[in-house]
Here is the input.
Amino acid sequence: MSLMPAPTTRLAPGDPRRLRELFARTGSLAAEHAIPSVIVGLAGREGDLLVPELIEYIESALRMEDAIFRMTRERAVLFVSDVDRARAEQIVTRLVRDFRERFPAVAEPLVELGFYEVKAGSREVSAKEVLPAVFGVTS
Here is the structure.
């Protein structure tokens, strides 16, 4: 008989399955519970050492029902539930401003924000639809 604990299914922070789970949760809230949500893309310049700090700061300030997925050191996707786009913009803008105020040597974290609102009653949300929208990719 082995005393080794059973393996857990806990996913690593950068595991793409976590992002799929995030989109599935967003779609479920919108379709089944009529709760709007906003997916926010946060992108900084490659190699910018302040962007990971900003992402950590935002992650620490999120509510329990919200979530964050780090794609790279300088890129993350935020999920803000039970808000519309205008409210999500206020929340994220306030957090970026608060970060600058707490760390006055930081004049301006160079990040771009993109927003994708999932309205109550919406259909399933897919990465193919959301990621280009929040990261400003055009075809």
In short: The chain has one domain: 16-134.
